[in-house]
């Protein structure tokens, strides 16, 4: 483990803690989506919500956060 690895790890941490990766949930009736996966070595799950963004041009984009 050297300085290059440390810098890469710090950059990854900052990327995971910034928008749009980390976004608070909306409790306005927007449904939650549970995605899970497992194997003989472990398991994991994430909780997401789907949002629609409308740009000034009128284009709509669906995103999952």
TrEMBL record:
<feature type="domain" description="Reverse transcriptase/retrotransposon-derived protein RNase H-like">
    <location>
        <begin position="1"/>
        <end position="51"/>
    </location>
</feature>
<dbReference type="InterPro" id="IPR041577">
    <property type="entry name" value="RT_RNaseH_2"/>
</dbReference>
<protein>
    <recommendedName>
        <fullName>Reverse transcriptase/retrotransposon-derived protein RNase H-like domain-containing protein</fullName>
    </recommendedName>
</protein>
<dbReference type="InterPro" id="IPR043502">
    <property type="entry name" value="DNA/RNA_pol_sf"/>
</dbReference>
<dbReference type="Pfam" id="PF17919">
    <property type="entry name" value="RT_RNaseH_2"/>
</dbReference>
